[in-house]
Amino acid sequence: YCMHGWTMPGTSNDACRLDAPTHTCVHCSLTFSSKNKLFAHLRDGSACTAKAGLKVSEACEKVALVIGRSSADENWRTKLWEAIDTARHVEGVHGRARYAASGGPNGASFASDASRESRTLGLEVDTLQLCDILSLTTEVLCSDEERIAWCAKANANLPPHLCILGRSQGLPGDFNADLSCIRQI
Fold first, then answer.
1. What pLDDT score was predicted for residue 126?
2. How many CB atoms lie within 10 A of CB 153?
3. Of 11, 52, 162, 167, which has fewest CB within 10 angstroms of its CB?
4. Among candidates 130, 121, 135, which has minimal Cα distance to 174?
């Protein structure tokens, strides 16, 4: 091999031939045509990401989920966070935080948690909500098809009395369900 990973011609001592250099992942032995592609591989959340000691840094957006609930199940939020983790592929991506373990990501809020608005709307603590809004910051989904598939995956892991009716596109960073959703429908 010559400098920069270029190969030497077979029988002559000429200067290096400009064959495409290759870059190999030392963790899995995959080869890449550029350093950028190698580093993208190392940052993609695969096992090599963990072996390289890197953390996954994903683009995030503030979204609202419309939640339908028809039961007085006290553990409905735990079940919801577990289903959201499933839709987020937490198990398959190194470094992705589990929302169920912490009761949701920092800054997540439910419209029904707003005590001031609950009094205004005449809601009592044990009143069933047919609909609630959850705002949270989570991974970006680019298309309606991705959002629909994400909701379907979460719903497949929810009990029949609990359903994610929809996921919004990205919202302004200062949107909070407990402050922004105050009207009874």
1. 53
2. 16
3. 11
4. 135
